[in-house]
Amino acid sequence: LKPDDPQAYADRAAELYAQKAFDLAIADCDRVLKLDPGRAPMYGLRGRAHAERGDTDGALRDYATALANDPENRARYLLWRAQLLLDCEDYAAAQADATAVAAADPTNAEAHFTRGTIAQQEGDHAAAAEAYTACLALKPDHPFALLGRAHCHFVHRDYGAVVADCDRVVALVPGVVKAYELRGTARKALGDLDGALGDFNEAIRLAPSSVMPYNYRAGLHYARRDYAGAVRDHMEALKRDPRHAGTFNQLAWVWST
């Protein structure tokens, strides 16, 4: 009824994006911007759709335009761009964007979380732990900040802290397989083999087609000198990925024993 109504196209673009119909969302954003070039937020939405389609250059162009023309939502666009740059492994540029947001608004929990994720990818686990802790001070129930910090604790061999953070993750989101794998590995390091077994069993229950939970449980069997159990679980892993080099290496170690 109103083919020239930019708001209708804008609303539909947002809905199409939510439905992961990214090509259609981009088409509607194009229509909005043709009718009303001053609607800067549409550049941001179109940038996200381009990013989801793997069009990095298109996304970066749109984010730059949104940043230049919509200063009120600067933090949002910077964090979207930081995530895109992180996916492209441009860690320095990604960190610059996330840090700019955190410096401008220290209460932005997602900015700290993004800083932590980037630092972790860079291998700076101390900086990552600091950023995740800053995020959790603002948003204590952020499960992925807890999981990220647990990884940092694991690198620093603070296994008790790993278990504590993973406890909180599984209480918040019981289906996070990585939390059970990480907690099980930490419990094994602490000598809690029964607790570790329970975690690896739960990881297998949640992700029965995954290789790693079987390999983790095989390592636990090996620690208990149950070599037959270790072989059995490594063979289960190979059924799921017959070319998994790590499984072959671990299996060879068991057989050499």
Based on helices, strands and strand pairing, what is the structural class? mainly alpha
Low-confidence stretches: none
Number of helices: 15
- The coarse overall form would be elongated
Write the element-wise H/E pattern from the N-terminal end onward: HHHHHHHHHHHHHHH
C-alpha end-to-end distance = 76 Å
The count of β-strands is: 0
Q: In which range does the helix fraction lie?
A: over 70%
The main sheet comes to:
none
The fraction of residues assigned to DSSP E strands is under 5%
Rounded Rg: 23 Å
* Overall pLDDT: 96
What does this structure look like?
The chain is mostly helical and 257 residues long. The protein has 15 helices and no strands. The chain has helices spanning 6-18, 22-35, 41-53, 56-69, 74-87, 91-104, 109-122, 125-138, 143-155, 159-172, 177-190, 193-206, 212-223, 227-240, 245-256. Helix 1 (6-18) runs antiparallel to helix 2 (22-35), helix 6 (91-104) packs antiparallel against helix 7 (109-122) and helix 12 runs antiparallel to helix 13 (212-223). The longest helix has 14 residues, at 22-35. The chain is elongated and about 70 Å long.
Would you summarize the structure shown here?
By secondary structure, the chain is mainly α. It contains 15 helices and no strands. It has helices spanning 6-18, 22-35, 41-53, 56-69, 74-87, 91-104, 109-122, 125-138, 143-155, 159-172, 177-190, 193-206, 212-223, 227-240, 245-256.
